[in-house]
Amino acid sequence: MDIIQKITKIIEPTLTDMGFCLVRILYQGAETNNTLQIMVERSDYSAMHSDDCEKISRALSAILDVEDIIANRYTLEVTSPGIDRPLVKLADYERFAGREAKIETLVAVENRKRFKGKILKVEENQVVIDFEGQELKIDFEIISKAKLVLTDELLAQMLKGNK
């Protein structure tokens, strides 16, 4: 089990109890300057506030200190996903069907590794996007990085409170 999996196992129950769900964990840096970024959102997908991040940070910091699974010093950052959020789980693609996304793959698909298009749907374990007017299927396992594209439509929907 790698460090991200260990951290996930330790913090997810607390996040769930607090009414939040884990979006992503990033652990990066050098031996003396590490950062642990924990990205969370509300379980009901309502807006996050800075005091939410502070409350989560205090709770998770205590848990991580007790468990002591990170050997080196690190800075803990608790963040919300933001409007142009990363797409991490297959459920994210289902949730944001109809929205535009940027997707990067580990291996070439149709001789490319970078795509920008509207998420159409999820079929089994594939993300289907409208890429340059064509339906393109991308296996979820080969997606290395993806995020929503900040568009006027997305911004307007988020400001109205639509998820």
Brief descriptors of the model:
three-stranded mixed beta sheet, five-stranded antiparallel beta sheet, 29% helix, alpha+beta, 163 residues, 4 helices
Low-confidence stretches: none
Strand order of the largest sheet: 7-6-5-4-8
Structural class: alpha+beta
Strand portion, in percent?
Answer: 35-45%
Helical element count?
Answer: 4
Q: How many E strands?
A: 8
Helical residue percent? 25-40%
Task: Give me the Rg, rounded.
Answer: 17 Å
Elements, N to C (H/E): HEEHEHEEEEEH
Gap between N and C termini: 33 Å
**General form:** globular
Q: How does this model look, in words?
A:
The longest helix is centred in the middle third of the chain and has 18 residues, at 50-67. This protein has helices at 3-18, 50-67, 90-95, 152-159, and strands spanning 20-29, 34-42, 74-79, 100-109, 112-123, 126-131, 134-139, 143-148. A hairpin with a 2-residue loop joins strand 6 and strand 7. The chain is built from four helices and eight strands, in the order H-E-E-H-E-H-E-E-E-E-E-H.
